[in-house]
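User: Structure tokens for this complex, please. No commentary.
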Amino acid sequence: MVQIVKTSSVNGPGPTEWLLVELQGEMMSRQNSGLAGNLMGYLLYTRDQIKSNFICHIHMGVPVLIVGHHILYGKVVKLEKPFAVLMKHSGLPQGEKVPMEINQQNPTTYSISPLIKKKLIFNTRPKPIITNVPKKL
Amino acid sequence: MSRTLEEVQATIQIAKLKENDLHNTSHCLTFGESVSSGDYCLMELDDTLCKHIEAGKSLVIRGDQDERAVLCSEDKTYDLKIADTSNLLLLVPGCLTPDQLTTDNQASSQLVHAQIWGFSNSYWELRKRHPKLKKLKRLLMENPYEGPGISGQEDVTEGKYTMGDLLERIQASEEELEAQLQTIHACDVNGYWRLLDFDYEMKLLGHITQLVDSESWSFSKVPLRVSLEELGRLEPQEMIEHSFNCYGRRYTDNDEVFFALNEDKVCRATAQMLLQNAAKFNLAEFQEVWQQSVPDGMGTRLDQLKVRMGSDWQLRGMGTRLDQLKVRMGSDWQLRGMGTRLDQLKVRMGSDWQLRGMGTRLDQLKSLALVDRSSKPETISLLRVEDLPEDTLERFTHLFTMRQKWTEEDITPYIQDLCGEKQTTGALLTKYARLSTQNGMKVFNSRRLVAT
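Assistant:
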């Protein structure tokens, strides 16, 4: 039984690179309404600071995640072994009848996402955002 | 539910972050509509596979229900192993990293909307492995090819496999499969890959060696065209040529095609032919019969060589070394180096120049036969590595059940194929066997209890 993994052409539609965001723990929606369609949060990056020499280098381009009432600091990591996402597609379109040989099943194919070469990892403890004065949006 | 830039900036303020410290591009991350549905998985790739995928080449996952799936590129095979992580991995197409952000312009703040396409707690690790090829021989043995004369065979498709059939069933890459087909001397007969029945294979080889003998050709220079003309009356020309390809090396000289028969391969095949009909053979008797069975006709033995040492003719004795031999290559005298082959030697037998025939040596039989020097008289029996279990632990158990103690020299040919990349047989022995000394000699026995 064979399953084909097709690599999409490099010039196909969509972004040419995906990003992986690694978080500790679980994601849950507030009212248990499921995640689909909901906002997760905001991703910000600290600005490269060229003001003074040494200290600022550590804080260049640090990713900051605001999720709910938490703020998390992370880092950009280049993956030693890149990832790819394999998306399964079931076999023949429905309604088609093909005489089946023994041992032959609907061919399964996969397509591959663009490669994931970098990740943002947030593994420090989230800090709570304390709101003293509720701000009207 | 998309947020506006103002909402984001307000949140930043509440979080007590300074806008000045932040890049002016912010991302708003939302879960996509089909984030929890959808059949997908994450796969970790090595450098080779990355390049392969970026070149647009495809991969194949192979495996029946009862087999562990493997992933194949065009020339390599990988094991698939699930790795779990306690962390959550979010997949975000279109999300940018700092180095990808456009140069900071304090004046214009931007908001990028990025969708979280999916997430996972696990991923597949790919580990390069040996192709699983034992099944190939098993399938092809269902219907070995015995020659064209066997009536009624042509229409039967049972137990016959095309390349496509094999690619469906064998867990190996196409290149590895093709290489193995060559190694086991399989032949494409009418579009089906067939393993030759051993007797038929020996019959074909026998035709060739007998012709070489009767024509007094050198084994290194067997003319193809003449051979096909002569032997084409006995067997199909394609089969004769197939036998040449299996047992010799093809080359061209002055626009004519010749084959150099491989001494080791011919001697090994002859040994197998002798050994497979008996459980054990008296070693001394075997060696005699074997040498006689090998196409020769000259009875040449290395100690019969009169060799030219300097300008003198001396009978090659125990002390002379092969690398001291000045051998006659064509009409020149050259010092026998690494590249010259013994079967190219024209040796001076008495006063004549005769081409040295094939010489059998026990070391040609590594991974094919096992010598028992502890029995009286010493014996030899057939033991082929391809008949042994494919799994490493099973292989060692089998070997130690057969024989309790093994010397490194004896066991190495039977574990060589188990070595992974950069792995040595020594490492395997350290892991799966126990070293001890017996009569001053290093021997290996099993780490676990096996019934012998």
